[in-house]
Amino acid sequence: MIRSLALTRLAALLLLLLPAALVPLSPALAGDPAAGRAKAAACKTCHGLDGVARIPIAPHIAGESEVYLETQLKAFRSGKRTHEIMSVIAKDLSDADISDLAAWYASIAFTVQMPE
Ligand code: HEC
Q1: Which residue, of 33, 90, 105, 107, is most buried by count of CB atoms within 10 Å of its CB?
Q2: What's the confidence (pLDDT) of residue 29?
Q3: How many angstroms does the Cα of residue 47 sit away from the middle of ligand 1?
């Protein structure tokens, strides 16, 4: 009885951990950074090719996590997140475009300097 309870708990724990373990292997995240760099020509006026924003209302996206970038671009595309510029831009992006762009911007390393 005690032993089967422990096994049930272990099984429940494994079920909880399984999705988290699968996230990095998700094919949706297998973007190609080189292809993304080329596609980022459509983004550079505002976010820069290097992911450092060129206009005050655009966020820096250099080094942002791939999962986050992909989630936000899909949210703009689906209408779950709306913005007058980004909603129009994301509308025409394919899943592959989004993965490639996310891979490119996520691959950029950056350093920060705290104020004195
Ligand atoms: C004309 C300017 C412009 C262009 C071009 C543009 N963006 Fe944006 N982007 C913005 C602005 C402004 C925001 C902030 C949206 C908001 O306030 O919700 C934004 C937000 C984002 C975000 C969300 C970032 C966050 O921190 O949540 C991502 C990701 C993003 N853009 C990616 C892209 C990609 C990839 C492209 C090219 C395919 C692109 N953008 C092209 C202006 C632009």
Answers
A1: 105
A2: 66
A3: 7
